[in-house]
Each structure stands twice: as structure tokens, then as C-alpha cells.
Amino acid sequence: MGLLRMNKTLLLLSSGVIIGGCGLDFRFKGKPTGQPINLPIEALVDKNFSSQQISELEESFAWANEFEAPRTFVSKASRWYEEIFGSSSSADLMVYLDTRISYFVSPQTTYQSNIKLSTVRNRQALATNIGAAIFMHSKANDSDIIYEFGAGVIDIKSPRVGLVKLNNAFFDQETSQAEAKNFRLMSVLVHEARHSDCTGGIKRSEILNEKKGVEHVDNSCSHLHTYCPAGHDYAGYAACDNHPWGAYAVSAVHAARIAECDDCSEEIVQVALATALDQGSRVMIEKKLFSGSLGLPNMSHSDIVVEDLN
Amino acid sequence: MYKSKSIFWLSGIVVLVCALFLSSEPKNIEKEDQLAKRQESKPKVVDQFVRPVLRHEANKIRKTKNSHTVSSAPSKDLVRSEIQNNPHNVPSSFLDFSVQIAHKMKIAKADQVYAESLFAEFETCADESELETTIALRAYCLANAVRLKAWYPGLAKSLDELLARSGEDVLNLVNTIRGT
User: Fold this and answer.
1) CB contact residues (below 8 A), chain A span 190-249, against chain B
2) Average pLDDT over chain B, rounded to whole?
3) Which residues, in sequence order, are CB contacts of A209 under 8 Å at separation 6+?
4) I want to staple A284 with a disulfide (CB 3.0 to 4.6 A). Which of A50, A165, A242, A272 is the partner?
5) Which residue in chain B has the smallest CA separation from A279?
6) Are the beta carbons of B177 and A277 separated by less than 8 Å?
7) Residue A33, SS3 per DSSP
8) Do B88 and A2 touch (CB under 8 A)?
9) What is the DSSP code string of B97-113?
10) What is the pLDDT of residue A111?
11) What is the pLDDT of residues A264-309, one digit of tens each?
12) CB contact under 8 A, B95 and A125
């Protein structure tokens, strides 16, 4: 679910091996291909998903595609729903996801031999936006990284490539009610999708920070998480956001609006409320952010490198 | 003839008693499910007949330790251990707790006495000095106390008192995410 500073916490990629060892093969490969799936977005799913996983994914998307969020809001957080997702219509939520997620990598998929994942500390994460992580690494190492997907390849030149790995824990979430499970899966995807945005472009100073393996100062490209400060319940863990409208804020707004649903089941209301409060508690600037004093959510994306070192 | 009839009736009664005995110990959560389903499917009957039954069964459930909200709320240590393994997702103990609360809130919606008892449990859960858990969890209990008050305005005074003694960080979070 989370995306961290990749070189330190999530994955180490050996881009030299990719280009040197396998580059020529990949350059002649065509468009990525996936197995058949019926989703309201145009994302491809790789061949390793089981039929059960495919049907769960289809069911969650079908639920989200038909679920209309309440049109009115109660809380300071849920008032931002339309600013983030375009409207309270499910069609716009699908556009939000479609723009940011293009490929699903299955839990069973081991990374291709050309991509070395030496550490995956966060083994129990429900999902990971690996496209954004690979993009950040490629920038830091000034190299092109190509990801093999089905019969073709994906050239990862932007976090908007939308490559999301779903882990077993994503599908194993237990709940007695199918609707609540659908919400939980969708909430994870709403969060991961935000990591596909490089808001305002990537600063040259942050590329250097990534290369050095030090903490980023500006986390708005790929909306990287940061370590929770002393005194926070999750202190010491990379489980917080300290910049405006990061992935935790976006999933908090999504869940907060659903928690206000009057005609939903009590279970979905409660699960959404718990999700909204947990995700909201990780936003370090929550009071200022949701009161509006930090401005409107910027949901745009840019691939430019901002030269800020002079 | 008379004797064999008596034996027949006697054995029938024994079978019935055994069946009742065997079916009398379902899990609390199943009981709550049944109660909630009854409540949802027959709204008109609830007022006249089911409500007293609900109340009676709710009282029984309330008396059992397992249904106690506070004791089932995940501790801060448990939540932190889950975050250590998986920093980015909502802790599963929190989500499990929310599913338990959903069952209780369904009963509370139809039963004021149960709602008042549940409110008292939320008071304990929201109180920093009573239970060592996370701010998000305390905020969750407070937010549910707010919802109960919306259903039962008679809880207004108790809610005001709870809000007055709640920590600023808990209040801020509830105000932002749910509204008070």
C-alpha cells in the first residue's frame, strides 16, 4: 500500500543489469498483454492472477462502479471529495483510478530476472505502486528501466505508468460482509493510485536525495511517505505524510465520505470510519490541510525535472 | 395403549428439550447477527414484539465478557506491532474491532437501553486514562458516541461531558474526519 523512499526501504533495483543484460531483447518486444478481465477501467492484469483473484477484483470494481458516494458532506475531510475525485459520481472515481493504474501485477508474479528486488521489507503490505518506486530509482540512477509484462514491455519513464502490485494480503482480508471487503480493496487502490502522481514535477534536489539514500525534503513527486514524528502513535515507522494531499489524505477523504453514507450497511460505515480515522491520523498537517488553509488539492501530474539547485 | 401413548409423548418432550438445550449456546456474534437481521427484516413488528425480545437478549449479551467493547479494543502495543510489520495499511485489529462495533451499533439503533450501555463503553474507550490505545481508536469510539447521540438525543448531556474531557488531538481528528 505504501511507497517509501525506494532505495532505503522498499526495493533495490539493478538497472545496469536491466539495460546491459536484457535491454536488446526487450526493445523489440511489443505492447504489454494481460489475461481477460472485466473491469470498468482499462488496466491489464498479468497472467499469474488466479481465477478467484480475478473475480474478487472484478467484484470490487463492479461494486465501486455502482456505488454512489453521498452527495452531501458532514465533515471537513469529506468536503474535499469532489475536489479530489471530480464529483461524487462513481464514474469520476473510475476516471481517477483509470488515469493512475494501468497494470496489476499478481501476488504470484516474481519479478523478472532483469529486475533485482533485493529487499522487500514490507512483506505484508496489501499492495505497492511499484511503477512509482521504479521511476524514482531510474531517476536517481539516470537510467531507463523496462518492465516485462505479458508479451510486451513497459518503459517506466513516469510514475503515471501505473504499475501496481497486489499482494496476497490484499485478497486475504477477512470480513463477514462482501460489501465491506469491496470497500477495503477499493480504499487500498485509491491510496496506491495517488502514488502515480508526480505533483509539480520532480526536483533535481530530490533526485540527489534519492541517490544518496537520505530523507526527501519535498515528497510531492509520487507522494512519498515519511517517518512519523516522536509522540505519534506510529512514531519511528514510515507511516505518515507531511506534505499536502498525499496518499493518506486522499484515502482519508474517500473513506470519510463513505462513512457518512446514510443508506449503507452499518458494517461498511464502521469500516470506512475506522479507515478514515486511521488514514487521517497519519496526516501530520491534518488540521491545516482539511480546513483549507493549504489550498485546494493539486491532482495534476508532471514528468518535468525542476532545476532547483542553482 | 394408554401407556405407549405416554411414552411417545414423553420421548417427544425429551427430544424437544435436548434440541433446545443444544441450540441455546450460539456465539454472541451470531446472536447479534440474528438480532440485527430480525431488526432489519421486520421493522413494524419491532415496536410491538421484537423490541422487548431484543432488549432481553441484548441484556444477556451485555453481561458476557466477550461482548465488552473496551476489552476487545486493540491496545496501542498491538497496533504498533501491526504497524511494524506493515506500516502502510490500516491495522487489521482496528478493522476487526470496527466490524464488532458494527454489530453492536445495529442493535443499539433499535434499543435505547443497549445504546446507553454502549455509549458508556465508548466513553471508557475514548478516555485516555482508562484505556491505552491509539488516538485514531479513541477518536473512533468518540465518533461512535456522537452517532449514538444523533439517534438518541437524550445522550446529549453525556456527550457534552465526554467532549469536554476528551484530548485535543482526539477532538481534532473527530472534528476533521467525522464532525461532532
Assistant:
1) 191, 225, 233-234, 237-239
2) 77
3) A215, A216, A217
4) A242
5) B90
6) yes
7) coil
8) yes
9) HHHHHHHHHHHHHH-HH
10) 66
11) 999 999 999 999 999 999 999 988 999 999 999 999 999 999 999 8
12) no
3-state helix, strand, coil in chain B (%, to 5): 80, 0, 20
Residue pair A261/A274 in contact by the 8 Å Cβ criterion: no
- Quick check: B90 and A278 in contact, CB under 8 A? yes
Report yes or no: A76 at the B interface, CB cutoff 8 Å. yes
C-alpha span between A87 and A95 (Å, rounded): 11
Integer angstrom CA distances of residue A275 from A183, A223, A263: 10, 19, 19
A2 touches chain B (CB under 8 A): yes
Cell 505492447 locates to A31
Task: Please give the full DSSP string across A237-253, using - where no structure is assigned.
Answer: SS-BB-STT-HHHHHHH
CB A163 within 8 A of CB A106: no
**What are the residue ranges spanned by the domains of chain B?**
27-177
Nearest to A246 by CA among A197, A301, A306: A197
Cell numbers of A80, please?
474535499
Q: State the DSSP string of A82-103.
A: HHHHSSSSHHHHHHHHHHH--E
Q: What is the pLDDT of residues B67-76, one digit of tens each?
A: 567 778 999 9
What whole-number distance in Å separates Cα of residue A225 and Cα of residue A254? 18
Q: What's the half-sphere exposure (Cβ side, CA atoms, 13 Å) at A192?
A: 30
Cell numbers representing residue A92 in the block: 469520476
Residue appearing with cell numbers 496489476:
A104
